[in-house]
Amino acid sequence: xxxxxxxxxxxxxxxxxxxxxxxHYSLRVxxxxxxxxxxxxxxxxxxxxxxxxxxxxxxxxxxxxxxxVNNWLKEQKKTSIMYSExxxxxxxxxxxxxxxxxxxxxxxxxxxxxxxxxxxxxWTLFHTLIIQAAEAGSKxxxxxxxxxxxxxxxxxxCRPCADHFEAMAQENMDHxxxxxxxxxxxxxxxxxxxxxxxxxxxxxxxxxKVQWPPPDLCPSCHTLKSNGxxxxxxxxxxxxxxxxxxxxxxxxDFLS
Length: 256
Ligand code: FAD
Fold this sequence. Notes:
Bound molecules: flavin-adenine dinucleotide
Largest sheet: 2 strands, parallel
Helix content: 40-55%
Mean pLDDT: 97
Number of strands: 6
CATH class: Mainly Alpha
CATH superfamily: ERV/ALR sulfhydryl oxidase domain
Number of domains: 1
Structural class: mainly alpha
CATH architecture: Up-down Bundle
């Protein structure tokens, strides 16, 4: 997108257009860089598609397309598949089952082409999935975290990002035993990445990396300790995340 095509958007909302664009880019561009998918990458793809099928809070045709491709993948008993076979399953369109082939960043727009977009949409997707899994009361609080860890490890195009994420996962992701802790683990690790990247050249000057949610989005998430240091109010932050990334709060504006 260029500056002329700028779409004014609302920072208090998550946009389905960003989430569908994330799926399109990840499944048709990023995964496509593997002609043959086998071993850990195949396990990672199966785990990723499985959580998308279970928890992606999408429009009915998109959910149907994810279900169809998940069913197809579950039937594959070979130790390797060709991307072309996966793509044929993914792109089998019917009137009520399809994944749009559109990239339109809204909340993830950058002020210039090189900024934001896909990596922003993947964070957005991961936070959304983890909230949906918590809402659905999934039995395994690690399910979404492990799926994203393995997707990032096998496919995410930014390799230093994947290495950093894996290092954080190795530190203590295995200790996550409840959905609440899973939601807060991802939120706090994302803030750690924000802190590390603040002021770097990759930062969009119009979207400075802040500890999120900032006070203008969630005043009650912040407090000061008696010594004047900043502290998060964890139950308020959790409530904010549950609402911000909830299915009911998603905006379908700007979808084609
Ligand atoms: P992003 O950080 O992409 O955030 C997207 C949106 O999520 C924000 O606009 C905000 O609405 C919301 N948000 C922000 N913080 C939080 C939070 N703590 N909890 C919940 N929601 C939040 N880039 C590097 O240069 N080095 C790296 O090591 C690196 N590692 C990455 C690892 C992963 C798994 C991913 C997905 C991306 C990584 N990136 C890395 C890219 C980088 O984190 C940003 O995605 C990119 O710079 C675009 O930033 P952004 O301003 O769009 O905001």
